[in-house]
Design a protein that fits this description.
The chain has a single domain, classed as 3-Layer(aba) Sandwich (Peroxisomal Thiolase, Chain A, domain 1), CATH 3.40.47. Helices cover about 30% and strands about 20% of the residues. Strand 5 and strand 6 form a beta hairpin. It is globular, with a radius of gyration of 14 Å. The termini are far apart.
């Protein structure tokens, strides 16, 4: 009940990417649901599968929850605000307290920033929330350019 269905997560991600008309390679960063639980490797693998990208080509993936904790019903909103600020200012905040990365995430280690990464050319960030009972949401934020 509390673990999202990987196929539902992948469908959610694919639908968001298709709806906004971008290619997966255009995503510069992912602000993941990532709760520092057994589900994190499944989420990261679902992102990779949904985007059709190998670990070495994945966008940077990070977790606002690592900085603020899990705000339950408010988490998605807070993380959306963080994502928009990151996009506007051209950075991705690091994920805290994940120095001892789960062994299943070893292939993605270079894609998980632990400190702030400056990305002045960042144009697209994806934000996802995957919840109880397979209630999933994914939104793509794109920087407006004249």
């Amino acid at each position: 009940m509390s673990a999202p269905n990987p196929e539902g997560v992948r469908r959610c991600i694919r639908s968001a990417v298709e709806s906004c008309g971008i290619r997966p390679e255009e995503i510069d960063a992912i602000n993941g649901h990532l709760t520092a639980t057994f589900a994190d490797p499944h989420e990261v693998e679902s992102w990779s599968a949904a985007l059709g990208l190998p670990p070495s080509k994945m966008p940077l993936i990070h977790a606002t929850k690592s900085l603020i904790g899990h705000a339950l019903g408010a988490a998605g909103g807070i993380e959306c605000v963080a994502s928009v600020l990151e996009l506007h200012e051209g950075f991705v905040h690091g994920s805290m307290n994940c120095e001892d990365l789960h062994p299943a995430l070893a292939a993605y280690a270079d894609r998980i920033p632990h400190t702030t990464a400056v990305l002045p050319n960042m144009k697209v960030i994806a934000k996802a929330s995957f919840g109880f009972g397979d209630v999933n949401a994914c939104i793509i934020f794109r920087k407006f350019e004249n």
